[in-house]
Amino acid sequence: MSDPLPPLRDVIAKHNLGAKKSLGQHFLLDLNLTGRIARTAGDLSQGTVIEIGPGPGGLTRAILEAGAKRLIVIERDARCLDVMAEISEAYPGRLEVIEGDAMEVNVHELGDGPRKIIANLPYNISAPLTLGWIKHIDAFESMVLMYQKEVADRLCAQPGDKAYGRLSILPQWLCEVRPAFMVGRKAFTPPPKVESTVVKFTPRDKPLAEADYDTLERVVAVAFNQRRKMLRASLKALPVKPEELLASAGIEPTLRAEKLSIEEFCALAREFQKITQP
After folding, report:
1. By the 8 A CB rule, do 4 and 104 touch?
2. Distance (Å, rounded) from C-alpha 145 to C-alpha 258?
3. Consecutive 10-residue runs of the chain (278 residues): their mean pLDDT?
4. CA nearest to 211, candidates 154, 176, 157, 169
5. Is the CB of residue 28 less than 8 Å from the CB of residue 191?
6. Could you confirm whether domain 8-203 is CATH 3.40.50.720?
7. What's the pLDDT score for residue 87?
8. Annotation: CATH topology of 213-276
9. Nearest in space to 163 (alpha carbons), one of 172, 173, 154
10. SS3 letters for the chain?
11. Sign of the C-alpha dihedral, residues 22, 26, 27, 33?
């Protein structure tokens, strides 16, 4: 179906939608790119698609054009609600709008499965949003999300990379995490200071290794809190003897956190849990 709505620049002008820095807004106006993002998520004709921060609706329209059976958007900027109403009228019965803060919404409970998230995330809350969704990744079939390049690099980093850390380990433990394509600054209004990357998350059939989520998160956070130190020093913040913990997990105490694989962190988490919860 051809999009019956006016050009996005006209929509922005009509509704006086100047991007707000406080909301981390950078509006994506290139309809070729919004269409490409929607297509990266694959078949949208079943279940529910969820979008965060639709703004003037460029990606919203692309998702609906791509055949989304049901789209739920979460928008905290009241200025954008009239725009969403116009899109809903053009695509009757397929768009639901939740006015609110995505940080406070249980996104994993919205709609019926299979659920997919497709979003150009507000850059100032992209990391905590992602980690919150990862904890409930069983509720989703996939996530296609746009980040500033630095955050995307951290999400996709491998052991030994400078960007490797907590934001790499937890998502990759539970998902295949792959960069899809980059988006230049000039595709946005206003242009951000950095390049952006679209990343696709596909949940694994089972985690890379056995571990309790909260325990793994705690061990990883402590290990990277002082990432320049050897593990025998950085893990002193845990209520165990680091040397004993590392020995029981079969890990050299002189290694630094950035050298450990996800499987090795899972081994640490399992041993920590055995020691602290016998």
Report:
1. no
2. 25
3. 74 77 73 94 97 94 96 94 95 97 97 96 92 97 96 97 96 98 88 91 98 97 94 96 96 97 98 89
4. 169
5. no
6. no
7. 96
8. Helicase, Ruva Protein; domain 3 (1.10.8)
9. 154
10. CCCCCCCHHHHHHHCCCCCCHHHCCCEECCHHHHHHHHHHCCCCCCCEEEEECCCCCHHHHHHHHCCCCCEEEEECCHHHHHHHHHHHHHCCCCEEEEECCHHHCCHHHCCCCCEEEEEECCHHHHHHHHHHHHCCHHHEEEEEEEEEHHHHHHHHCCCCCCCCCHHHHHHHHHEEEEEEEEECHHHEECCCCCCEEEEEEEECCCCCCCCCHHHHHHHHHHHHHCCCCEHHHHHHHCCCCHHHHHHHHCCCCCCEHHHCCHHHHHHHHHHHHHHHCC
11. negative
CA atoms within a 13 Å half-sphere pointing along the CA-CB vector of 232? 10
Cα–Cα distance between 131 and 134 in angstroms, integer?
5
Residue (of 154, 156, 164) closest to 261 by Cα position: 164
Tokens of 90: 């053009």
Closest CA to 23 of 64, 75, 85: 75
CA–CA dist 202, 112 (Å, integer): 18
**181 Cβ neighbours under 8 A, 6+ residues apart:** 36, 40, 197, 198
- Check residue 9 and give its pLDDT: 83
Structure tokens belonging to residue 18: 């100047």
Contact 61, 87 (CB under 8 A): yes
pTM metric for this prediction: 0.93
Would you state the pLDDT for residue 24? 62
Give the start-to-end residue ranges of the domains of the chain.
8-203, 213-276
pLDDT at position 191, please?
Answer: 80
> Given this model, what pLDDT does residue 184 score?
92
Q: Which residue has the tokens 């929509």?
A: 11
Q: How far is the C-alpha of 171 from the C-alpha of 155, rounded, in Å? A: 7
